[in-house]
Amino acid sequence: MHAPAGGGGVRVARLALAAPAGVALLVGMAAGLARMGVFEMDAEALQDAHAPAMLFGFVGSLVVLERAVAIRRTWAYAAPLLLSLGALSLITPIPAAVGRTAIVLGLALMLVIYRLIWQRQPAVATSVQALAATCGLLAAGLWSAGVPFASVSLVAAVFLVLTIVGERIELGRAGGLTARGENAGLALAIGVSASALATVIWPGTAHAVLGAVLLVLVVWLLVVDVARVTIASTGAARYMAVCLLSGYAWLAAASAVLLAGGEPDAAAYDLVTHAVLLGFVMSMIMAHASVILPAVLRTPLPYRPWFYVPVALLQLSLIVRAIGDVRGAGTVVQVGGIANVAAIVLFLLCAAASAVSASRTTRVKGEPHAQP
Questions:
Q1: pTM score, two decimals?
Q2: Under 8 Å CB-to-CB from 204, ≥6 apart: which residues?
C-alpha cells in the first residue's frame, strides 16, 4: 500500500510522525544533564533512558522516517514510531521490556525497508546502511536480553556512524567515487562492525582494534569526501563542509582514545561516546538538515549564515567537555554538557526560524497580485 502523496495533510502527518522523535531528544538531553548532576533527578528510569532516547528515539527514528518516505509504503512508517515511542516508554510505568522490544521491532522493520531499497537498486551504500541497521538491531537485542546498555553502546553508536558513512558513499558516487573506493568503504564498514561487536565479548583489545579501524575509516572519508574541496567555496556548500570536517575530527578523536587506552574508564567513555554522538553525528545532522527536512517534511529549510553559531557552540562546548573529562573536572564537564544542550536547542530554533521565513516567502510569492 502506497502512502498518499501531495497536499498539506502529508506534511502534517509526517510532522506527527517526527514529533515523538523531538520529544525523545528533549528527554535525552534532560536525562543527560541529570546524569551529570546539573540538577537533581531521583527518577532512575529517566537517567537510564538518556542514551537509548538519543540513539534510537531521536536519531534512529529520524533516519528510518527518511527511509520510509523514500520507499512510499504506509507500513514503513511504523518503524520510526516503534523506535521513538519505544524509547519514550522507558520513562513511563510501562515495563522496560515493552519499550526495548518495540525498539528491536523498529530496527528489524528498518532492515525490511533496506531490503526493499536493495531490490529496487542494489548499491554498496545500501549494503553499508543495512549493516548499520544490523548493528543497531544486535545492540538493541542484547540490551533487551539483559546486557547493560553501556556494554553495547559502541555497537549502537556504530549503527549511526555507518548509516552516515553509507550516505556519504551514496553522495560520493555523484562526486566521482569509484567502485574500488566504494568497496574499500564497505570493507572498512565490515571491520568497524566486527570490532564493535567484539568489544562486548573481548573488552580492551577489541576496543583498541575498533579505534584503529575507525581511524582508518576517518582517513578514507577525508580522502573520498568532496568536503575537502567545497571547504574553499562559499554559502551552503562551505557550511556543510565545515560541519562534515568537524565531525570527522571528532570521530578521529574518539578513535584515538580507543586505540590508545583500550577499554575506556568512566571519563574516557564519556569522551568517546559524546565525541561520536555529538561531535560526529550531531555535526552531520546540522550539515544535512537543509537537505533532509525538505525531503521528509516537505518544508523548505534554506541555509542561513546564522547556522554557524550553533555549530561553533557545539564544537567549543565539546572541547570544554573533553578537557573536563581528561582532567577529571566534573564542573567543567557540566559546563560543557550544558553548552552542548544549548547548541542543539539553538540550532533547532535557527532551523525553525529559517523554515518559517522560507514558508512565508513562498506563500507571498504564490499569492495572486491585487487587481487595480
A1: 0.91
A2: 262, 263
